[in-house]
Amino acid sequence: MTKQLTAVVTGANAGLGFATAKKLCEKGIKTYVNGRNKEKTEKACKELGENAIPFILDLNDLDKISAAVERIGQEAESIDILVNNAGINMKKEFLEVTNEEFQNILHTNVLGLFAISREVAKIMKKQNSGSIINISSMAAQYGIPKVIAYSASKTAVDGMTRAMAVDLAQFGIRVNAVAPGFIETSMSRKALNNDPERKNRVLSRTPMGKLGQPSDIADAVYYFATSESAFVTGTILPVDGGNSIGF
Fold first, then answer.
1. What pTM value is reported for the model?
2. Which end of the chain is less packed: N or C, by CB atoms within 10 Å?
3. Which residue range is the domain that position 119 belongs to?
4. Has 142 been annotated as catalytic?
5. In this structure, is residue 192 part of a structural domain?
6. Which of 142, 150, 222, 223 is catalytic?
C-alpha cells in the first residue's frame, strides 16, 4: 500500500491557500491547514473534508514554530510538502511607511517563512525527500506602486527560494516558487471593480486578457509538490496569463 503523503499549507483558511489545500486534499494528500483564527480554520477544514487537519498557529510567534512542526512530524510520521502561502500586504505611499510597518511585513513574509521552512526541512532531511513551495508575487518581478514593504519581502522570497534550493538539494529536498499574477479572488474582484481604470490596465497588459483563477495557482503548486517536477528546483514560475511579459 502506498503511504499517504502529508502537506502543510500556511495561511490556508481562505484565498489562494484554501484553493491549494483543496487541490491537495482532493488528490488524497493529508493536509495540515494553517491559520491564526481557530474558528475560521476549523470551518475551512470541514469544507475541505477528511484529509484536512486544522493547524492553528500565528507564524509571527516564531518561538512556537519548532514545537508545532515537531508535533506534526510525529503525528503524521512525515512532512512531504510545505507550501509557504501565509503573507500580509499593505498599500501605502512610500514616504509615509513607518519603520515598524515595514518591519511587520518582513517579519511575517520573510522571517516566518524562513523559520517554518527551517523546521520542516529538518524533518524532510531525515526522510531524504521533500518539496517546499513558496508563494511569491508579481511585486518581485516589477515595480508596483505603494507596496514597498511587500515588494521587498517577495523579492526576498525569490532570493531565498534559490538559496534554499542550493542548500537543501543535498538532502533530497526541492524548493520552488509560484508567482501569481492577477487572480480573481473576492478581495481582488472588489478592488478591481471599484477601480475600472486599474482593472483595464491590468487586463490590457495581460496577453491572455483575463484574470487567473485560484485553481490555476493550486495546479502549479501541485506540479511542484509531486514527482512530476522531480528534476526541478530553484525556479520561480509566474502563473499570470503572460502579465509579467506583457506590454
1. 0.97
2. N
3. 6-183+213-239
4. no
5. no
6. 150
User: How many of the other CB atoms lie within 10 Å of CB of 245?
Assistant: 11
Say which DSSP state 169 is in: G
| C-beta of residue 217 within 8 angstroms of C-beta of residue 20 | yes
**Residue type at 143 in one-letter notation:** G
**What CATH number is given to the structural domain containing 152?**
3.40.50.720
Q: Is residue 194 part of a domain?
A: no
Task: Name the strand (E) or helix (H) holding 7.
Answer: strand 6-9
Query: In degrees to the nearest 10, what's the CA dihedral of 239, 125, 73, 27?
Result: 40
What is the domain count for the chain? Answer: 1
pLDDT band at 62 (very low <50, low <70, confident <90, very high): very high
3-state secondary structure of 81: strand
Q: How far is Cα 150 from Cα 8, in angstroms, rounded to an integer?
A: 23
Q: Which of 44, 36, 51, 42 is nearest to 15 (CA)?
A: 44
